[in-house]
Amino acid sequence: MRLTLPNKLKFIATVFTVAILFISCQDTYRRVGEEAGEEVYPQGVARDFTLTYTETPEPLEGEDIGSSRVIAILESPVSKDFDNLAFPYRTFPEGLQVEFFDEDNNKSVINADYAIIYSATDLIDLRGNVVIETHDGKKLEAPQLFWDRENEWIFTQRKFRYTNPEDGTVMDGEGMDFDRDFQYFNAHKTYGLMTIKENQS
Question: What predicted TM-score, i.e. pTM, was given to this entire model?
Answer without folding.
Answer: 0.71
